[in-house]
Amino acid sequence: MSPNFDTGRPSARPPWRPGPAGLALFALLSGCAQEGDFGRSKPSAWNSLVETTGTLAARERSEPASAFPFTDDERSLRDRAWRFLMPAAGRDAFTDVLANLTRSRLLPPSWRTADPADYHDTLMGDAFRSPVSRYRRLSEDIGTDARLIPQFAALAARVKEADALRLRSLPFVKTLDDRDVRHAAMRVAENRCLIAWVRLETGLRAAGYRYALEHLLIEAPGPEAVQVERTLAALDGRRPILDPLVPPEAEIRCGLLPEADLVAAPVAAAPVIAKY
Q1: Residue 65 — very low, low, confident or very high, per pLDDT cuts 50/70/90?
Q2: Has residue 270 been placed in a domain?
Q3: Residue 228 has pLDDT above 50, yes or no
Q4: Which residues touch 10 (CB under 8 Å, ≥6 apart)?
Q5: The organism sits in which domain of life (predicted)?
């Protein structure tokens, strides 16, 4: 009786595209969304509206969107995912708006294109007084990701354990109807897809950091690159913590990547820093 993880989305469905009116509404909602501490969403009426509207939009795309209330851990999981689903370095206000629309599920995640040069372009475009400041910013961003991954993984493991209990209990609760079972299955799918999405984004962020370090080393070589390399190695060492939490081919089944584009998560590249 345990529901299948498959979301049941039609494989031949054309890509979803919002109309001009929809984009205007989405931009209004997302522009009012506020960020709290540690890169998490700030509790507010606007953020709640964005989250609710995103659930409705996902449901319209036939994606899993449960009507069940979030548990404390499920809510915390979504708060902790905020940092990894937003750009590592916002390029402009419009890009940040689109990212927030995607994070809140108003837009499907599959539309996004990952360019490892984006972070580097933003890093070099900001008004820093010296290359040392750019190295410091790069090291701080990488280090924050590395510190937050174990916290997210521990929370994700608790959510997965609760989901397993939820599925095991379904056959023994005789008063459930088909709607209850369906929404229980969708909540499990939502949780698994969120974890898979964060795993995917951590790999893409690491690739962007690697690109930035390699190019910064050529553009403005300095001894600070050694510390950045060490911090990046720490991030690459912690990303595999998420691997056991993600089902096989989750990126396809969750609509995060087209099947033709599914590749292994970026692996740690050889260090670019030798000895100075």
Answers
A1: low
A2: no
A3: yes
A4: 62
A5: Bacteria
pTM above 0.85, yes or no: no
Total domain count, the chain: 1
Average pLDDT (56-60) is 53
Rama region for 236: left / alpha / beta (φ>0; ψ in -120 to 50; rest): alpha
The reply to whether 152 falls in a domain is yes
Give the Cα separation of 276 and 268 in Å (integer): 22
113: its two tokens: 């294109």
* Domain-embedded: residue 15: no
Q: Which two tokens stand for residue 98?
A: 């689109």
How far does the chain reach from its first CA to its final CA, in angstroms? 62
**The residue to which tokens 């919002």 are assigned:** 18
| Domain coverage including residue 239 | 20-261
- Residue 270 makes CB contacts below 8 A (sequence gap 6+) with none
Asked, for residue 268, whether it belongs to a domain, the answer is no
CA-to-CA dists, residue 214 to 46, 175, 275, angstroms: 40, 59, 15
> Whole-angstrom Cα distance, residue 276 to residue 273?
8
